[in-house]
């Protein structure tokens, strides 16, 4: 267990060794919530959504966690595939490498989610703080899975980062914050988490279906990330 | 263009053609985002102040149609700049060791960045035309080209100085703040410190072209050209130094 902790710590340090990475990991969620949220109520209304400003502010925290974790997971996987295979072959074993990678990715997701959550609490307050925290982490877990999957399938950093942006755009433009038309939105990955976050921001509870949906998709995201990291670290014939 | 620059450019294009997914995404991403965002915007009334000072009555749908291309181009061209310049720093050192002058290797990469930017601008302009009647195409497309080149140059600088993750976050941060919010007439007329950001000049030229058949944005155009010249010189200087140092 201590070996796993040590390797996970090394993987975490690998991602935050550049000081600017740390600054941006903190600054962007703060920026999203403080600045983007100030115009999001008006923007969502223009786009046919019916969000109150406070609910719109809440969703910006989820988006920040989603985009940052998606790109983090993509680059973590894309930049480490060779090294991870060598680590696994050198005796660490594929599963220990995979568990260390996923632990480091989720820890980064927790850090980003926490920054977004605290900014949200300080800026406008949330009537259901635990609901909001759970929903923001669900965004982070879902996009960790999406980013890792793209990293496993696409080697080129420009293609991969554009693909993360495309999926993020498909998701938010079809989500409940941006359109009241639910026909396509029902199929987007963060819809239940968005419903939870909007309800928490607006001071309302959420139906059990949204909780089950959000945590089911978040668990699927983590499982996909595990599979993606395993695909790149496993021994090849 | 020298023979060696031509060879390096041809090889750089061939290198890009090995990655058809990039080409598809450079078309699909702006097309989807622009088409979708205009399609779901309500036609609620919105007054827009043009560069000459005239105020026109428009709608949120039309304003979104006018500005969304600029937002997407800034972000995509910025990412293109980041990653093409990062691969240039890795691969072009070998060209310089093999006898190319740094400026010849850099020239090839700049042609690739400019071509990718032109593709994104062309797709964005065509998709915009499907949903929004642009008043004057020359300044509108001119504004988009300036936005694309400015952000591609910023991306190239970020790619030369920062690692991939930090450079990607920086482009997201800057493009969203600048063209997505500060210069965006959906949230009011840009004023005060807005003029200090790189998207101000070309953004105003784009808005002028979108809504006016006459042109009153000469100062904004000169400002945008100044940004291009300054950033272009910086990009060439940074890359020449990087390639020269590495090959020494």
Strand percent estimate of chain B:
under 5%
- Gyration radius over CA of chain A: 18 Å
- β-strand number of chain B: 2
Sheet bearing the most strands of chain A, described? none
Helices and strands of chain A: which structural class?
Answer: mainly alpha
Largest sheet of chain B, order of strands side by side?
A: 1-2
Shape of chain B: elongated
**Number of H- or I-type helical stretches of chain A:** 9
Account of the protein in words:
The complex is a heterodimer of chains A (237) and B (248). Chain A is mainly α and 237 residues long. The longest helix of chain A has 40 residues, at 53-92. The mean pLDDT of chain A is 83. Chain A starts with a helix and ends with a helix. In chain A, helix 3 packs parallel to helix 9. Chain A is elongated. Chain A has 9 helices and no strands. In chain B, helix 5 (137-161) packs antiparallel against helix 6 (164-182). Chain B has 8 helices and 2 strands; from the N terminus they run ααββαααααα. By secondary structure, chain B is mostly helical. A two-stranded antiparallel ribbon of chain B has the order 1-2. Chain B is elongated. The A-B interface holds A 15, 18, 20-21, 24-25, 27-28, 31, 35-36, 39, 42-43, 45-48, 67-68, 71-72, 75, 79, 154, 156-159, 161-163, 165-166, 169-170, 173, 178-179, 181 and B 19, 21-22, 25-26, 28-29, 32-33, 36-37, 40-42, 44, 60, 64, 75-76, 79-80, 82-84, 86, 162-166, 168-170, 172-173, 176-177, 180-181, 186-187.
List the helices and strands and how they pair.
The complex is a heterodimer of chains A (237) and B (248).
Chain A: H1 2-16, H2 19-46, H3 53-92, H4 94-124, H5 129-153, H6 157-173, H7 182-185, H8 191-201, H9 208-233
Helix pairs in contact in A: 1-4, 2-3, 2-4, 3-4, 3-5, 3-6, 3-8, 3-9, 4-5, 4-9, 5-8, 5-9, 8-9
Chain B: H1 3-17, H2 20-39, E1 45-49, E2 55-59, H3 60-97, H4 102-131, H5 137-161, H6 164-182, H7 200-211, H8 218-247
Antiparallel strand pairs in B: 1-2
């Amino acid at each position: 267990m201590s070996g796993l902790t040590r390797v996970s710590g090394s993987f975490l340090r690998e991602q935050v060794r550049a000081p600017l990475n740390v600054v941006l990991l903190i600054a962007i969620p703060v920026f999203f919530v403080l600045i983007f949220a100030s115009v999001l109520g008006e923007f969502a209304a223009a786009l046919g959504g019916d969000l109150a400003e406070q609910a719109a502010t809440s969703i910006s925290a989820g988006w920040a966690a989603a985009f940052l974790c998606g790109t983090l997971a993509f680059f973590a996987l894309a930049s480490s595939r060779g090294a991870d295979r060598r680590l696994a072959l050198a005796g660490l074993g594929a599963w220990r490498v995979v568990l260390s990678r996923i632990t480091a990715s989720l820890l980064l997701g927790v850090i980003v989610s926490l920054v977004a959550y605290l900014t949200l609490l300080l800026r406008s307050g949330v009537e259901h703080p635990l609901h909001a925290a759970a929903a923001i982490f669900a965004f982070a877990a879902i996009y960790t899975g999406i980013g890792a999957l793209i990293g496993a399938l696409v080697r080129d950093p420009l293609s991969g980062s554009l693909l993360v942006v495309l999926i993020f755009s498909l998701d938010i433009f079809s989500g409940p914050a941006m359109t009241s038309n639910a026909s396509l939105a029902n199929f987007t990955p963060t819809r239940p988490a968005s419903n939870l976050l909007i309800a928490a921001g607006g001071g309302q509870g959420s139906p059990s279906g949204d909780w089950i949906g959000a945590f089911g998709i978040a668990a699927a995201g983590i499982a996909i990330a595990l599979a993606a990291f395993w695909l790149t670290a496993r021994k090849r014939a | 263009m020298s023979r060696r620059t031509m060879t390096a450019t041809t090889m750089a294009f061939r290198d890009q053609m090995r990655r058809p997914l990039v080409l598809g995404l450079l078309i699909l991403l702006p097309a989807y985002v622009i088409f979708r965002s205009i399609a779901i915007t309500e036609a609620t009334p919105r007054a827009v102040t043009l560069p000459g000072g005239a105020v026109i009555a428009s709608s949120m749908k039309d304003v979104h149609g006018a500005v969304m291309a600029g937002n997407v181009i800034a972000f995509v061209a910025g990412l293109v700049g980041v990653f093409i310049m990062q691969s240039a720093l890795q691969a072009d050192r070998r060209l310089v060791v093999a006898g190319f002058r740094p400026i010849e290797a850099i020239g090839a990469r700049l042609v690739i960045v400019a071509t990718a930017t032109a593709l994104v601008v062309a797709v964005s302009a065509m998709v915009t035309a499907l949903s929004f009647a642009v008043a004057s195409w020359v300044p509108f497309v001119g504004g988009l080209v300036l936005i694309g080149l400015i952000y591609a140059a910023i991306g190239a600088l970020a790619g030369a100085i920062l690692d991939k993750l930090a450079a990607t976050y920086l482009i997201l941060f800057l493009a969203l703040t600048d063209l997505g919010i500060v210069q965006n007439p959906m949230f009011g007329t840009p004023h005060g410190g807005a003029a200090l950001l790189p998207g101000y000049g070309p953004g105003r030229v784009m808005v002028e072209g979108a809504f006016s058949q006459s042109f009153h944005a000469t100062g904004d155009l000169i400002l945008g050209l100044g940004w291009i010249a300054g950033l272009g010189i910086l990009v060439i200087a940074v890359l020449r130094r990087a390639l020269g140092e590495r090959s020494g």
